[in-house]
Amino acid sequence: MNQETPQLQQPQPSLLQLRHLKKSYGGVQALDDVSFDLPAGQLLALLGPNGAGKSTCFNIINGQTRADAGEVLLAGRNIAGLSPRQIWGLGVGRTFQVATTFGSMTVLENVLTALLSHQRKSWHLWRPAATAAVYAAARDEAMLLLGEVGMAEQAGRASSALAYGDVKRLELAMALAHRPRLLLMDEPTAGMATAERHALMALTRRLVDERELAVLFTEHSMDVVFAFADHMVVLARGKQIASGDGETIRRDPLVQQVYFGSGKTFAAAGDL
User: Fold this and answer.
1) Ordered strands of the 77-78 beta sheet
2) What residues have CB less than 8 Å from 66, skipping those under 6 apart?
């Protein structure tokens, strides 16, 4: 009796794969052969002193900057060179160091605006009779998103009246409105107190687990990084100098010298 040889299942590639990224500005090498992977369901911290190349890396991933060389693979597709809108449409969201919400709108209206953008509808198309069902569905979805980030009770408040930590949670709800597969978070806890920082990242951790999101974030608060990151990549002056889990990064002598020490070896003006 013939027995069929069992087929070995091929491992799925990581959701985000950076391969040999390079970018220079004049004589400054902002990124020099940077490569790393980010699977779905993980938080990866991109670390480095000012001038390390973190912002350049983020801007290449979401299409604001074109790499000189290399690939950005999203679920195996090279998205390098696509526009930010195209990349957004493929499921890449982003939050910024300075939160971007509409201060003149309520919390609920901010999320509704993000949902309508995802659905390619606009406010002026809403008519009470013709679109009551559409509005009700969008409002329900917006309230669910606000519930996920703990902001449902503040739906009717003006976003301009929110505490800074709540603004950050609102921005996260808006980023989730288009159901991203990959979320880029640029200094998500900047300007927040310790308790607020940990609360926001605990929320992010829960969303990553529940939604199988992949999150790439930059962060200068090491308590947040070591508490929540699954993996870390350290850059210094455009070069990738280390990667690994928290213990690996803590023990790396070059990281200690460059990042946890004085940082003078790679001193530069501004974060490229």
Assistant:
1) 28-38, 16-25, 69-74, 77-78
2) 60, 80, 81
The sign of the CA dihedral 72, 77, 82, 84 is negative
- Over its C-alpha atoms, the chain yields an Rg (Å, rounded) of 20
Q: Per-residue DSSP letters for 91-121?
A: TEEEE-SS----TTSBHHHHHHHHHHHHHT-
* Residue among 17, 57, 26 nearest 239 (CA): 57
Give the predicted TM-score (pTM) of the model: 0.85
Query: Which H helix or E strand runs over 236?
Result: strand 231-236
CA angle 142, 144, 150 (to 5 degrees): 105
Tokens 């992977």, located at residue = 37
- Rounded distance, CA 209 to CA 109, Å? 27
CA distance 50 to 122: 40
Residues 180-224: pLDDT tens digits?
999 999 999 988 889 999 999 999 999 999 999 999 999 988 899
Angle at which helix 107-119 crosses helix 164-176, to 10 degrees, equals 20
Beta-carbon count within 10 A of 45 CB: 23
